[in-house]
Amino acid sequence: MTAARSPRAPDAPPRPGLRERKKIKTREAIRGATYALVAEQGYDSTTIEQIAERAEVSPSTVFRYFPTKENIVITDEYDEPLLAELAARPADEPWTDSVRYVIRKAVHLAVTEQPEITTLRARLMLEVPAVRARMRETLTGVGRTLADAIAGRTGLDPDGLEVRVHAMSLIGGLLEATTYWAEHGHREDYADLVDRAIDVIEHGLPTGKS
């Protein structure tokens, strides 16, 4: 017997239409061109014109999809499917377990499907102030969306202080785990670091040595 699912959960994610698939393909081409150029010549030396040429689109197309070069680096296609999956977790599952499951899945996708890009993004976030600032700004919006998802599972007010604090604590924990990973040369397991960050948010600091 399977557990009942949240009434908010869709039966199955709809397949994108042709227009949306073309948009996704264009975004992926622009991001792929950007990552390749940054790996070859560095972030500051990479221009929008070079990105457009490598992606075989016009500079105006790049700006239509991404308002700044920083946005190209920090965005991906994972947010909406993962938030939908959070809503689709079993209704009787503790919501903290649901959030942990979805975050673990996001990290797993990042390190298995795009390991080089994930490493590069973390390094750029650490080394380039403009990327770091844009990442923090973007994650604030993600945090509000996460608060809506948490509220949908708990029945709490999504704009209530407690929900907002918890959602942004999760976002901040992910950001710090990523920064720590980059600071230490990506030597440690990224998924383990994220798990440790979530443990701190759920249970507080570990007991110090006496």
TrEMBL record:
Q: For the HTH tetR-type domain, which residue ranges apply?
A: 24-84
Q: Which PROSITE patterns match?
A: HTH_TETR_2
Name-wise, this protein is TetR family transcriptional regulator
DNA-binding region of this protein: 47-66
Q: Using the UniProt annotation, give all residue ranges assigned to the region (Disordered).
A: 1-23
List the Pfam families: TetR_C_14, TetR_N
What are the record keywords, sorted? DNA-binding, Transcription, Transcription regulation
